[in-house]
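Page 47, continued from p. 46.
Same chain as before, 155 aa.
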Amino acid sequence: MRPKFLRPRSRTPRQAARLVVLSPSGAVFLFRENNIEVGVHWLPPGGGIDPGESPEQCVRRELREETGWTDLAPQRLLCTWEHDFTHQGVPVRQHEHIYVTSGPERDPVPESPDAHWRWLSPEALAGLGEPIWPPRLADLLAGPPVDPVHLGLVT
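Result:
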């Protein structure tokens, strides 16, 4: 009998963009989420890019939807990366554009009762002890690269 070879489950490509907001003191605004596949992790505001939308338009829309802030815009592209996870029951390979901007340290408005967020100092970010999306965010912010860094597929 011939062994059956299982093909890896295919993943749907998904484009996303996120905006890292840095306060004047260097603190970073992040949400804490718990995905069934990857577990607890921290990530900047953002999400899937809608059809016809640019990554920059996406981060402005997502920031408004998730925080209520309308006065911030992406200043530069920090990095890109890809990762696999399940989004709304669909296995996806997500390609993310990570932008950086500066803004005041403030609370989201209106604050969602089920949103878990925090302003993290550079020291707190480096010693968080839980995964951060994108990986290496603390290092990238500690010595900001001149050109965007392409992290590739991170498993």
